Amino acid sequence: MIKSTFHSHSRFDDGTGELEEYIQSAVSKGFRVFGFSAHAPVSFESEWNLKHELFEEYIKTIKTLKDKYRGTIEIYAGLEADYYPGCNDWRIKNGIDYTIGAVHFIKNEKTGTYMPLDGTREEFEDTLKNGFDNDADALVTAYYGLVREMLMKMPPNIVAHLDVIRKNNGNGRYFSEEDDHYREEVMKTLEIVSLSNTIVEVNTGGIARGYMTEPYPSRWILEACLDMGIPVMVNSDCHHPDKIDFWFEEALELLTDIGFTHQRILIGDEWRNIRLHE
Ligand SMILES: [Zn+2]
Ligand SMILES: [Zn+2]
User: Fold this and answer.
1) pTM recorded for the entire structure
2) For residue 110, what is the domain's CATH number?
3) Backbone angles phi and psi of 146, in degrees to 5
4) Which of 31, 212, 231, 233 is the most buried (most CB within 10 A)?
């Protein structure tokens, strides 16, 4: 497998370490391609996101690294862009090679605040209670509805951790993935993914950080992606230079077992389907 990740954080947002430390780690682990995807700035208070005033420095630092490591590793500048009604369109920003579209927050219409969907269990319960009167089906509908809206209004290159609302749902604590309502929401979303020509990432970051035992999205969703011809890619969503290829071997095995033969990545400045085994 050509080793790559397009989903990585750093000290510019909620990760640890300088951008160059990630590149040094990538070179030592035999990566051919590495993409940075800081959480794009948002219009509300957030501890995770890149600050507006650091945006230029982020882009400039990546550009310097691109030049310094040319011939050794390909480097791309991306953003993990939060979608919420009224958000910025980062796809057209100068210096950005690609975006990963993500829904991490839902606006509470009563209070005007943005509630996290993949925070701690306590934060998730607050969101469920304050935003949805403890109706998990309503939260599921709202989350996947926002993902679809993002895909229709501002399709990114890659859709982030498609079923991230599973984060706190160990043993089906809040909702069941077997439930018709849940499955319909996911399948409706995959139809829009397929129409918008977006890549679904296999995100191993939750495992690296100890929240999950399996990647996002669930295996049955990946099986549906294969059936529908939706391209996939393996991303580590790393927040530390040592974790850039965490669970990659297992992800390769999982995709092969499901029947995937290729992943789609950005290489040589082009989005290409690359064989998983070569
Ligand atoms: Zn994310
Ligand atoms: Zn991320």
Assistant:
1) 0.97
2) 3.20.20.140
3) -70, -40
4) 233
Cα of 80 vs centre of ligand 1, distance in Å, is 7
- 120-146 pLDDT, tens digit per residue, is 999 999 999 999 999 999 999 999 999
Structure tokens at 147: 């993902």
Tokens of 29: 């682990």
CA of 103 from ligand 2 middle (Å) equals: 11
The closest ligand to the CA of 167 turns out to be 1
Q: Which ligand is nearest to the CA of 235?
A: 2
User: How many angstroms is it from 36 CA to the middle of ligand 2?
Assistant: 10
> Residue 84 corresponds to which amino acid?
Y
Distance of CA 12 to the CA centre of its chain: 17
The distance from CA 215 to its chain's CA centroid, rounded to whole angstroms, is: 11
Provide the domain count of the chain. 1
Would you tell me how many other CB atoms lie within 10 Å of the CB of residue 149? 15
CA 237 to ligand 1 center in whole angstroms? 8
Question: Domain of 167?
Answer: 4-275
Q: How far is the CA of 100 from the centre of ligand 2 (A)?
A: 9
* Angle, vertex CA 160, rays to CA 132 and CA 262, nearest 5: 140
User: In terms of Cα–Cα distance, which of 101, 104, 119, 113 is closest to 167?
Assistant: 119
* Cα–ligand 1 centroid distance for 209 (angstroms): 13
Which is nearest to 215 in space by CA: 232, 201, 228? 201
CA of 218 to the centre of ligand 2 (A): 17
Cα 32 to ligand 1 centre (Å): 23
How many angstroms is it from 200 CA to the middle of ligand 1?
13
